[in-house]
């Protein structure tokens, strides 16, 4: 039914040895992320004007940006560029745009999902209403363009157009991924396969979280096609592993560090790896009961409904299975990065990239 | 309070002689518009893929496009290019993108305004729900980029980047205009001046309806800065005149040709020229009564509420005044175009541009 030509082939294989290394990754990560975040926020202050045309446009663009996000996407873009020998100066504006795009996507995604919390605070549409939230998201998308056009002075026309092509594809992939899930919701489709889940996630999350930041970072340095291909393999695995960890955290994570409500995905009726697995395994009676709950709008669901779904997921071992799949994907990502490391001399930037697989599948937020 | 530096200075001057020529404009217009529309739809069929990733993304992008719209924006872009000696081939893709952008804007605007009808049929969010409508709009915006990047093969890098800059600014102006009105709604501001109304309209409607299509059409031909300036003056006046006519039609037009519900602007609480005028003129008692109605959400308003607002507008001569202002603006647009006609040899494309002022202020849809 899903007719895409590009997807990640994921084979669940229970005998595949998992080798999650313990490492000092958290320290490297935290420092690199917070430094990138500060640089990118400063850059965004240059890009986004002050408070023009009333207080509900440009000011609100900073609302999500200033909440305690990880700023993973710009850090990844910067690290890729610098690990390949590029300069911060050449990639900073592009990284900032990727962070802006990500936050625009979140603003619209929260409206679409009727989410309550984002990074520990009420979502934008709960604070300002749906019309303002839609317009702020549109504005953030619009603001991505002019800074990328300004790249031409520094990077030349060729690289500028190439980065715009990456961003154009990223925008398209993200809405395609979103459309896949919205279509599942509309049709009450709750038994999508792992492969279908991976395709949806690759598009909806993976493209803008890993693939585009890595591609853009590499393009700035003039990396070869072969180098870019290896890095993209890394990004493809990481994107899906990242979303699987997010699915798991949403069920078992503490609300405090994670910043979204526990089991919010079940209240919102998201298609997580664990829920889809449980629904595929469920008896016809269990599945019918779960479908009745999942077809309700968020406000009509009860705590008992959510408990029933949690019990179903537990019965079929959904969380352990998701963790195992996340670890397999991280392992493949490590292999791809080891190949890519041949053309990246040792540096803190390469260290950051190499610490990512562990970080992604063990993070608490 | 509005701190923009670029606005249209509009001076209401009751003694200003109005010279609306009667002409055969309707015939020229109808033919040119329908021909452009057919070309642009064909081009959009090349740009937008078939039914990939489920039926609720690419198919739905054609939903508004295939309703009986005027396709004014692409026709204007084509006419400007061709009147300046450019080729259809060089401008068609850009024109198609402008039509796509316009329809994306309508999709989100209808969600924000909770509109019921668009071009005589239920709005997208009424048919498919808010989440799908937001995502389809996002997808349509995303699909604007790749075709404009493809321009480089035909137009070269310089013109390609220039058109992208126009589109980037158009996207920004549109959300700024929207933000101005959303801020008025939020603050219960119902006495904005004519000048503030014109700034809002110039940004929200004028930029993507006139200024960007004209600029893009001119850039393709390599028009000089002086030529572009004169054409932009034309576009600025036309943009506001167009919206004023829309405000009037919404009050006095027939639902059939117009395609939106009669007085829908009052149900939705839009800031029309007539309503703002009436509110500025109203007695404190009248204004307080009207504000009580306007502060209600659409679903809580009654037919009697709308009748009260209609009576208020009539009492202060709002419609006649709006018509007079529209005619003044059309007159200025005619003068600007007469100056621009010096560098446009006679052609059907120039005829189309010259017929526009009459058409805009007399159209029934």
The helical percent of chain A reads: over 70%
Summarize the largest interface: chains and residue counts: A-B, 50 and 50 residues
Mean pLDDT of chain A: 89
**Care to count the β-strands of chain A?**
2
Assembly state (oligomeric): homodimer
Shape of chain A: globular
Question: In whole angstroms, how far apart are the ends of chain A?
Answer: 34 Å
Question: What's the arrangement of strands in the largest beta sheet of chain A?
Answer: 1-2
Which CATH class of chain A? Mainly Alpha
Helix-strand makeup class of chain A:
mainly alpha
Q: How many helical stretches of chain A? A: 16
Largest sheet of chain A: 2 strands, antiparallel
Give a short synopsis of this structure.
The structure is a homodimer of 365-residue chains. Chain A is mainly α.
Descriptive account of the structure:
By secondary structure, chain A is mainly α. Chain A has one domain (25-353): Orthogonal Bundle (Farnesyl Diphosphate Synthase), CATH 1.10.600.10. The first copy, chain A, contains 16 helices and 2 strands. The first copy, chain A, has a two-stranded antiparallel sheet with strand order 1-2. In chain A, helix 1 (25-47) crosses helix 3 (72-83), helix 3 runs antiparallel to helix 4 (88-113) and helix 4 (88-113) runs antiparallel to helix 6 (130-143). The relative contact order of chain A is 0.13. At the A-B interface, helix 4, helix 6 and helix 7 of A face helix 4, helix 6 and helix 7 of B.
Which key features would you list for this structure?
globular, two-stranded antiparallel sheet, 365 residues, homodimer, mainly alpha, Farnesyl Diphosphate Synthase, 2 strands
